[in-house]
Specification:
alpha+beta; homodimer; 20 strands; 2 domains; Rossmann fold; eight-stranded mixed sheet; Immunoglobulin-like; globular
Chain lengths: 373, 373
């Protein structure tokens, strides 16, 4: 277990809001449009073609509203009150492409922007905004056959609860009753939950599009809660994987194999995770070498040849991050794994940080490499 | 078409927040517990055994916070600021059992309570709270076989979009590849969407429990967006059902029949809806008599013998509401339908208004009456 790598990953999670936006002296284009993640009928927040975000919040009797997006390290975006009771403001610089969490500070209290949809992150339902990415087509909702995302409730004796997971089944699932599919177990990060990969990540649309383009053979994705939200900053060294490992490998995997058309063996089972989900993937794939044949860490640390020695060979080790994280570390780790004879692949997402566009792109790169036999 | 009945239903929707709580002089018991709908780790809002709700919101620099729950007609619950920067307050009277939507007014602005989960109602994601009902066991999450709720994306030529629906499949679905199931099409109310029946309504848990107790034969439930949210108060007379009717009967029903193990005929297809979803059920079942054999209006108007004359006989007409709505109208309508020879059933939910406990109970009463051939 490489504690330093985990600490780096978590530090990146916490630091990301401090460095999302760049100060800029460019002229702001007045081509703002309502964010695609707004609630029905809401005009604000708005995003322009450069990635600037403009906010507008009604609170006639409030004294101050600040938005935790844009130059967070210097206080986010402070809004200015007009005579009509609205607070408005624009980020000082453009935001990175992709998805960002944020919230408001209204007279010192934490509230969500009433204009946006909410996404579970930082152990709370946060406001979300999407800066259209130049490559957004790969996760767009298109007129192609769609897979389904289904909520399952599976019995967990170890925790004495009925636990929730979401299962993506590809568009052709169930049409041929005897066809069986490989399975990717895909984990969210710290502060998130089992809703993250389909809501923020668009994992289902990424898969639908890859399948429609003939770039991958269909497989199932299972996403459950990684029990990571009790981890407080600084408490990472005390994290015990055992509880989640038991739920995942002793309860969820057998439930999925019993209830879905899966190829129920190690060679057709992969595990991947983002950030703390990468840490969990790292720990569980090493602790249970009989379970998974494909390993993927998305902004979630690295494997070393030393820790893989004496373990059965993984069919693939995929390690990724955003270019604004620590790509050198990812590339160096993959080079070392390759030197040691492992089938390792690195991916660095251009111009993104520890956020969901990095992970959407990582899934798009990972999926065609899985289940190649 | 009975316009008066629709107006009454909509008026009830809008009026409900004005009459949720009763003024009371009883002593408030200090046995408050965190609401079951709170976000992870949140202690407030809290509910006591009498149904009082206590709120606590941090906003150190705010001047006023009001909660739109409890005696709404007199301004909801006004919170009081303490020296620690928290606003606290308790509803003046106990709330009805079951689920309630609400939000905060913070210095004149509309925000959600950061302590609670959010539910789509009133055309926005609202804060939700649950007052434990004496009969809550029927929608409790139990250690029984669970069905799945899956998000489907179906192509809609008439609206040129990929539209979303949620499909409940019972626990035994798919185990026997040749077993086919009847289908209930179940609609939400005005201001809600396709998430309402599983999130607020617990339709899946109600079904799981009824099936586990042997009270019903398993069937599928399909829930989609009824396109009702553009209806503004007062504009109801202008509501045109055509667009939704086309999506439902020409696009969704055929998609479900092509992609799920359904018995694809009228005799095994039911339609039900709550409030404006009842109005839609009313209109569509009358306009498309070849589609559905079972009709159910939940706080959503009534059928009259006159409008059913010359139509094929429904196998069942189910009409329900809460005792705090207009039960006399429901009972009278069902009596008239019975007199005219129809198989009509009424249900009145005790001590509830135009809210989700009425509709959870209605589904529990309706389900055993469906697909009895």
């Amino acid at each position: 277990m490489n504690l330093k790598s985990l600490t780096i990953a978590l530090a990146a999670t916490l630091a990301v809001s401090l460095c999302e936006a760049q100060t800029s002296t460019e002229k702001i284009k007045e081509d703002f449009q309502a964010s695609t993640l707004n609630q029905p009928g809401q005009d604000y927040p708005r995003v322009n073609s450069q990635g600037y975000v403009r906010f507008r919040i009604k609170a006639p009797k409030a004294d101050s509203i600040r938005v935790t997006l844009g130059l967070g390290g210097r206080g986010g975006t402070k809004l200015t009150k007009d005579t009509g009771g609205y607070f408005t403001g624009t980020t000082e610089g453009p935001m990175d492409e992709g998805f960002h969490y944020y919230h408001l500070i209204v007279d010192g209290g934490v509230f969500n922007d009433p204009g946006t949809l909410n996404y579970y992150g930082s152990t709370r339902w946060e406001s979300g905004i999407e800066i259209p990415a130049h490559d957004q087509d790969f996760y767009a909702l298109k007129d192609v056959p769609h897979g389904n995302v289904q909520q399952i409730l599976f019995p967990s004796k170890s925790t004495n609860t009925q636990r929730r997971a979401f299962v993506y089944t590809p568009g052709d699932y169930g049409k041929n009753k005897s066809k069986k599919y490989p399975v990717l177990y895909l984990q969210h990060g710290w502060g998130e939950d089992e809703t993250a990969w389909s809501n923020q990540g668009h994992a289902n649309l990424i898969m639908d599009n890859l399948i429609a383009e003939g770039k991958i053979k269909p497989f199932i994705i299972v996403m459950t809660y990684g029990m990571t939200n009790d981890i407080k900053p600084g408490g990472l060294r005390n994290f015990k994987i055992d509880a989640f490992e038991t739920v995942l490998t002793d309860e969820l995997v057998p439930y999925v194999d019993a209830n879905f058309q899966t190829i129920a063996d190690k060679a057709h089972r992969a595990m991947a995770g983002l950030s703390m989900g990468g840490m969990e993937t790292h720990l569980i794939t090493l602790a249970k070498p009989e379970e998974f044949a494909y390993f993927a860490l998305l902004s979630g640390g690295v494997y070393t040849p030393a820790e893989l020695k004496d373990k059965p060979n993984a069919k693939l080790i995929f390690i990724s991050c955003g270019s604004k994280e620590n790509p050198t570390r990812v590339n160096d780790a993959v080079a070392a794994l390759k030197d040691a004879g492992y089938n390792a692949v690195s991916f660095v997402s251009a111009n993104t940080a520890h956020e969901f566009l990095t992970w959407r792109r990582s899934l798009k790169e990972l999926a065609p490499l899985l289940f190649k036999d």
